[in-house]
Amino acid sequence: MEPIKVQSEGGLNVTLTIRLLMHGKEVGSIIGKKGETVKKMREDSGARINISEGNCPERIVTITGPTDAIFKAFAMIAYKFEEDIINSMSNSPATSKPPVTLRLVVPASQCGSLIGKGGSKIKEMRESTGAQVQVAGDMLPNSTERAVTISGAPEAIIQCVKQICVVMLEPVLHRVSNVSPAGTLVT
């Protein structure tokens, strides 16, 4: 395991990997013409963004990097999806804008922590961010993971993803009490 770097202001800057499940049209939007959109997202966020190959209805988008880079990448994706919704509505008589929706792929073993005792954690996330959050009851096909669907305004989604990352990092954060003065994790 790589050492965890402790930022000077006391916050953690760990490398995280978050995966999203996306439909082909959404993936096309993220890639852009000749890959320009995803290239710009990689450059501007500093995160590694990989898109699974394949000619299937859904693909996995993997975002890896320091937490701040991941949040920037998520923000760019959420705002891109909002832009796509606005553009698709220009020819529509609909007056209310549908929410942006992202689906995270989360290990089933961590879903209990996301939901919390009696649903307390997920309820707290919904109330504090304004995003809708749903954890699928069933695992994804041929997998030990579940989909976590987040819907709302891009700002709400970004805040919700930050909270989900904090919950997923809690096992690591508990070990931080073993961090040496040099800022490396002592196991």
UniProtKB/TrEMBL annotation:
UniProt entry keywords in alphabetical sequence: Repeat, RNA-binding
Residue span, K Homology domain: 14-82, 98-169
One Pfam family linked to the record: KH_1
One Gene Ontology MF term: RNA binding
InterPro entries cross-referenced by the UniProt entry: KH_dom, KH_dom_type_1, KH_dom_type_1_sf
Domain of life: Eukaryota
Sections of the chain in a coiled coil: none
Protein name listed in UniProt: K Homology domain-containing protein
Organism this protein belongs to: Amphiprion ocellaris (Clown anemonefish)
Gene: PCBP3
